[in-house]
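Progress against Task 2.4 (sequence-to-structure conversion) is shown through the following example record, which the project officer requested during the mid-term review.
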Amino acid sequence: MKRIILLALCLICITGTASAYGLYLSCPESVQSGLPLKCSIESDFPAGTTFNIVFYQTQYTSTEVSRQPITIQENQVTQYKLLDTNGLPGGNYKVEVQYMGADEPRLRSDSKTLQLVKVIDRSDEITITSPMTQNVADALRIEGSIAKLGGAGIKIEVRGPDGIVLRDEWIGTKEQIQNGAGVFTKLVTVFGPGDYDVIFTDSKGYIGMKTFKVAGPVTQAITTVPTTTAVVKTTKAITTAPTPWPTATQSPLSPITALLGIAGAGLVAVFLTRHN
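Structure tokens generated for the chain above:
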């Protein structure tokens, strides 16, 4: 009887173990703000099982930063997810794997679905003294300092609209006596306008990124001088007609003169009649 009970218990344990799955999340304990947080996920869940990888900020309460799905593949290969930390303030965060199905699956006791992460923000160590907006003819002038760096030197990388302009070049820094900062200066030639990201790194790792805006060449407006066209005004010459000589006008005979003429003609006629 004892053997039967013992066998039944073993079968229950075996069945329970077989129905449980393993899920293992692994992330770095810390990451520099601005760099991607790379997490790995291993599981023997059936292919097609989908989870959410949720990234939280846990300063006072948990505030979701991002989430993205992950689906178990046929070969149950280890998968990786990159979580964006660009612009996140330094502090405490956590990454959690959440099941997306209707019923929460049974996990093996050694499963790990939660990871605490510390985000380190060093961007405030960078001080830029050159203009953040520059003309393409004078760009790109990178000048400033790194707090408490002294003369240890920094590594910079410059990325522009068309890709990497300067790749991982170490430049010297000069210690500032007043506060121990490391002062740097670097002129990088660029050939076009756009946003240029400068990434700063020292021996401790990633410090931060600063974005410079490069404007195109200044074009002078061409002032068009209006052409003054002389308007030729055609004036018709005024022809002065010569003053005509006075035309002799025949004065009409007065009535008395006409009567005297008639009377004279009558006397002549009478005289001629009498002598004939």
